[in-house]
Design goal:
Layout (H helix, E strand, L loop, with lengths): L4 E6 L3 H12 L4 E5 L13 E3 L3 H10 L4 H7 L1 E7 L9 E6 L1 H13 L4 E5 L2 E7 L2 E7 L4 E9 L8 E4 L2 E4 L11 H7 L5 E7 L2 E3 L9 E3 L22 E5 L2 H8 L23 H7 L7 E6 L6 E5 L7 H8 L10 E3 L2 E7 L17 E3 L9 H19 L13 H12 L23 H12 L4 H23 L1 E2 L1 H11 L8 E2 H4 L7 H7 L1 H7 L4 H12 L1 H18 L17 H10 L4 H5 L6 H10 L3
Parallel strand pairs: 1-2, 1-9, 2-6, 9-20
Antiparallel strand pairs: 3-5, 4-5, 7-8, 8-9, 10-11, 10-19, 12-19, 13-17, 13-18, 14-15, 15-16, 16-17, 21-22
Helix pairs in contact: 1-9, 2-9, 2-11, 3-4, 6-8, 11-12, 12-17, 15-16
């Protein structure tokens, strides 16, 4: 019934969809197996993509030739560029999406991708021989062979849903859990753990009083996520902000004695940076209110997502508390919030390619690795799909470095530091965030993606055009001279220091209060100068000029760190014989077997003094 595939992808969430697309677009035959084909790329939690650091990841996926950015743009109902008041390293795109359209659009994109087959079934085991994975076993009894397998099981591995004192098996509400895989992997020597995540209630938007809330509109201009010319909506839907209050908190406290979290029925660790509402009022008892974001689920639905009210308290407690929130007095609840516990496998058991260390040709991506978030899952799926394809075709894996992409930071953190709680990406995790901006993801990553055959010729041509325009405009601004008589009247109106002598435009732009947009308004000659250039190239040129010194400092730091990356450690290096290493360092180095001094330096428990000892033994 089934041919032998190059790659089988298990699970069609954000990680699985990107993995299937990447492997197929590189030339592999792919089978994507999912429990329910109606829920592909399901937005299980909030109907939004991007945000702080997450927006950078989606732009990187797009630059590499992945689909997440395109699908997000095609289904956007509101767009905002966050952190505009800060420097460009912090700018982060975020979109509200139509939940149903998002899933349908993803499925359509995959169905239009050659070499992908689909099958609706549940995978209950792996085919493994001589420590090599060669296929899967399904609930319907099929043994389907492949040269590589990518597991992207999300929250389905032995998933348990909690609502108050009720608990039942499930990977999402109304969807059954997956059993068998964890038990088999543990028998093969893998270490597993339990994590927890949660989701808030959904309510009927018709029952809300929006006059009691603060309106949050989208940006006037939608820049979007994809570097391609994807269509953007001509109108946007508003989100709304309201707040809890002491009365809400008191009602929630009445359910604490039946809370699965406080009564110890949930053993898994939850996401630190996205706590439940009961956790918030327990940990931050001094706060009288917490912010609630009221988010529409799509263009043509009345369903509303209550962001900030994640909970697993009894259903009747949730409902009573909701009705004390301003604007929710008459609310009708579609379904309650719940918590879900699931199995994961500590990612220190992976190689940087996301292939497991114990079983060859078996790759993990997404929440199975301990991450949380659509974006974190999608980028792992992309890299697992790329590297599964390359492994079976005897090609070297693609490993993005920490100074090349947020994706590289995420995978490096997971593999070398591990995680004991759901891992979420933040800009603070990246030491080179001035280099890893959302605006230059195409310049950083598309040439690599094109070289390996993932990015298209058309996408690469756009990058060449952008690079050429940046070079041209930079030279023009370095040559164009401003005179005091031109700009001083405007500077005087701003209360800014006046220009005392002629100055090149490039140098004038180093003033933090001055922008190219202002120069365009002030001087018709500058407006004429910029006419031939695309908006992307203008923005990129200005950023590179304004932040040149900061960018150069990070590049220098990156060069120094890469020196450590270039010092290889022999595969069977005898750490146990080096008494000068700390005991913890010896144990961790023996366990993780880093390939370079750079990798060793990022392992939790390995200190700078341990690296110095190793450098001596490496002859450095």
């Amino acid at each position: 019934m089934f041919p032998r595939y190059d790659v089988i992808v298990v699970g069609a969430g954000h990680a699985g969809c990107e993995a299937a697309a990447a492997a197929a677009n590189l030339g592999s035959s792919v089978l994507l197996i999912t429990m329910n084909m109606q829920n592909m790329a399901q937005m299980s939690c909030n109907p939004a993509m991007g945000g702080i650091a997450k927006g950078q990841i989606i732009r990187e996926i797009d630059a590499m030739g992945g689909y997440s950015g395109i699908v997000t743009d095609l289904t956007t109902i509101q767009f905002r560029m966050l952190n505009r008041s800060k420097g460009p390293a912090m700018w982060s795109p975020r979109a509200q999406n139509d939940r149903m359209q998002f899933s349908w659009t993803w499925r359509l994109k995959l169905e239009q991708t050659p070499r992908i087959d689909f099958y609706q079934d549940t995978v209950v085991g792996l085919l493994v021989k001589d420590r090599r994975c060669y296929g899967v076993v399904t609930q319907l009894g099929h043994r389907i062979e492949a040269r590589a397998v990518v597991l992207t099981n999300g929250t389905f591995l032995n998933g348990v849903i909690h609502i108050g004192e009720k608990h039942f098996g499930g990977g999402r509400v109304a969807e059954r859990a997956a059993t068998g895989i964890t038990e088999q992997l543990v028998s093969l020597g893998f270490e597993s753990g339990r994590l927890k995540t949660g989701t808030p209630p959904r309510v009927d938007g018709r029952s809300l009083d929006y006059t009691r809330m603060e309106e949050q509109k989208g940006d006037p201009e939608i820049t979007g996520f994809s570097f391609l010319d994807t269509p953007k909506p001509t109108q946007q839907k508003s989100c709304w902000i309201t707040y809890t209050n002491p009365q809400v908190h008191e009602i929630l406290k009445t359910g604490f004695d039946r809370s699965p979290m406080f009564q110890g029925r949930i053993q898994g660790v939850g996401p630190r940076y996205c706590p439940s509402i009961e956790d918030k009022i327990n940990r931050f008892a001094d706060k009288e209110r917490h912010q609630i974001f009221v988010e529409p689920e799509g263009w043509h639905t009345i369903e509303v997502y209550v962001n900030g009210f994640s909970t697993s308290l009894p259903e009747e407690v949730q409902f009573k508390a909701l009705q004390k929130i301003p604007g929710f007095e008459q609310c009708k609840m579609f379904r309650p919030g719940y918590a879900i516990e699931y199995d994961f496998f500590p990612p220190t058991q992976l190689q940087l390619s996301l292939e497991t260390r114990l079983i060859e040709n078996l790759f993990f991506a997404g929440q199975i690795n301990g991450t949380t978030g659509y974006e974190e899952a999608a980028c792992q799926g992309l890299m697992a799909g790329i590297n599964a394809h390359r492994k079976i075709h005897d090609l070297e894996p693609i490993i993005l470095k920490r100074d090349e992409a947020y994706i590289g930071v995420l995978i490096d953190d997971l593999v070398h530091k591990g995680t004991v709680e759901p891992y979420r990406m933040f800009t603070s995790r990246a030491e080179f965030r001035t280099l890893l901006r959302q605006d230059n993801a195409d310049l950083r990553l598309t040439p690599l993606a094109y070289a390996i055959g993932l990015a298209t010729e058309a996408r690469m041509q756009r990058v060449h055009r952008k690079q050429h325009q940046i070079q041209q405009l930079t030279q023009l601004l370095q040559e164009y001279t401003l005179v005091p008589e031109q700009v001083n009247p405007f500077l005087e109106d701003m209360g800014a220091p006046l220009l005392k002598e002629k100055q090149r435009a490039a140098r004038f732009l180093l003033r933090p209060e001055i922008s190219l947009a202002q120069l365009q308004q002030w001087l018709p000659t500058v407006a004429d100068l910029l006419k031939p250039f695309d908006a992307e190239a203008i923005e990129q040129t200005e950023i590179q000029l304004k932040y040149a010194s900061y960018i150069e400092k990070e590049k220098e730091l990156s060069r120094k760190m890469r020196q450590l990356e270039e010092v290889p450690i022999p595969e069977n290096f005898h750490y146990e014989k080096i008494q000068a290493l700390s005991t913890e360092a010896r144990q961790k180095l023996l366990k993780f077997k880093p390939r370079t001094l750079g990798q060793a330096s990022r392992i939790s428990g390995v200190n700078p003094s341990d690296i110095q000892v190793l450098m001596v033994y490496m002859g450095r």
